[in-house]
Description:
With 377 residues, the protein is of the alpha/beta class. 45% of the residues lie in helices and 23% in strands. The chain has 3 domains: 155 residues, TolB, N-terminal domain (Rossmann fold, 3-Layer(aba) Sandwich), CATH 3.40.50; 70 residues, Carboxypeptidase-like, regulatory domain (Immunoglobulin-like); 108 residues.
Amino acid sequence: MRSLFVALLILLASSSVLAAESKVKIAVLDLQANGVDKSLAAGATSLVASELQKLDVFRVVSREDIRSMLQFEKDKQVLGCDADQACLAEIGGALGVDYTVAGSLAKVGDAFLLSLVLSSTKTAQVENRVSETVAKQEQIVAAVARDAQMVVSKILKGREGWLVLTSSEAGASVKIDGQIRGSTPLPGRLALSWGPHLLEVEKVGFVTSSEDISIPNKQVLARSVALVPSSDFIGAYDSSARKMRLGAWIATGTVVAAGGLAILFNQLSASTESKFQGERTQYVNNTGAVTLAQLNSLSQKGSNEVLGARVALGTAVVAAGFATWFWIAGDDPHRYDGYREQGPVAATARDAAPSAAIAFSAAPVPHGATVGLLGLF
Length: 377
């Protein structure tokens, strides 16, 4: 009779239990109720299946799926598979699953004992065991959710994918399942276990980005995160960016002005030098009315112009250094324009009063042509 039943299970599995090739197939068997209400154990069984399904790496088959087609509870007694690992492996193989999860929920004094067992259908061996004592009945739900993920942890080990993350902001902390894994920009790809994870990207002054992601097995998942700045951050950023940009423009203007003065003084000194050489020749040859005082005055004037050119050129060089720093270190004051609140648009005369008419008239008046304006609104 057992062989007939197993054959029937194979037929049912082939027609109604289809799984994707990339997912691990696992069967969740009913938890035994030891000293607790059977409905409580049944609820815990459904929760185990639900939690494993959430991981998005398993194709979960529960006994509820089978029971809806052929009263499995009745046939379970015939099979006698409550504690026989070989029999459970045979059923798991018939269902086409790789693993089975069984266990029990027992009352121990005023507390509850939850036990889950992961078995391989290929080896008929126990792969993992998880047990937890629960003080109160209302804590069973959290314990089942926690232990369901713990019991399959060995299956997920060694199955991993990669996350490639880009962010609009540098220096933002990257958290995976509550643990900091680096800061943006991340160097290369981040290896993560196969399945769902919570991705959080946070930076002071920005709204934290939180997203549920699912890492594919041996594949790369790419995500781009655009952090949204807060109003306070935008205000502080604008103030700093505008000051830096103003400094850049002032320094650039100083470069232009000082450079212009350097050129001007250089030309003046060249002209003074030429004049000085001419009058010096006249003075030496005694062919003109040039005096020594005039030569000394021209020499002093030329020296002052050369000094002016050098000072202006030095000022231009220093200002160029400051301008370069301001332009490179300063931020774009328009970077977050798209995140600012838009103020009310000023209404035009046509929008405010489309029926209004404006009339202009010009009339001559005595003593000249004075224009008169009449406005009708």
